[in-house]
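We now fix the convention by which a protein and its fold are recorded. Here is one such record, which you should read through line by line:

>
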Amino acid sequence: MISIRQAKAEDDVGIWSILEPMIRAGETYALPRSLSREEALAYWHATGNTVFVAEEDGLILGTYILRANQQGGGSHVSNCGYVTAPFATGRGVASAMCRDSLMRAAAAGFRAMQFNFVVSGNERAVNL
């Protein structure tokens, strides 16, 4: 069964193993394909981001970030970014993370969630 929790520092190995193939492929996030491990983890753990992991039997299957979409007058709207491990696609991980993020955003006081963009070729995300 998939469980979702806030990430800990020791999860960075698993998080990087999920972020790296996504970054190198350049098909889902508008990030430089050359991003280093340190740069990618700094981006994922940036100030204002709360990082979560989806896991099953201690294995990290996905990760997502929850944050305010904008500052000031837009801070009541949340924003999330989700990444599923390549070996875990098609198992409902992204759907579970999306449901979890909506509940956590509401619990944190956000009144809405906005997804800024999805790369058109990312059919799974478009259909989510």
